[in-house]
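Fig. S4 source data, part A: sequence.
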Amino acid sequence: MTTTPQYAVYRSMIARCKNPKHPAWKNYGGRGISVHENWSSFKNFWTDMAPTYQPGLVLDRINNDESYSKENCRWVTYQESANNRRNTKYITTPMGTMPLALAAKKFNIGASTLHYRQNAKVPDNLLLSPPDVRNRFTTYSTADPTTDSL
């Protein structure tokens, strides 16, 4: 299986955790993330992970502060993996706490609007309120801005 995408995922996981010259090493091996000793061979890794593998999914650690192991790994979509990063921002919604990007999608509010509101310390009960767009600049003026038209 050395030419398969699954093997490439395995090799990348090993490199991130064991090779200090790997570009992502500081976020993996450099901060103590390792690969369970049972997964030192691809055969064992694949025995554990093959039953849940589907094409198009990526390997994800459930708890980002723990190492790669059968108990802490799963196959997920790229979007699910992106929502499971250390720097993911979360917000409280009526549907529970969720990643900001997911809340923006579910509540049809721009992610940048939610980022701004969160950084501005807007209370949780107002984070998801519809934006007030009444005063938006929507047309171009042909007036000369250097002259006083009042």
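Fig. S4 source data, part B ends here. The chain is about 30% helix and 10% strand.
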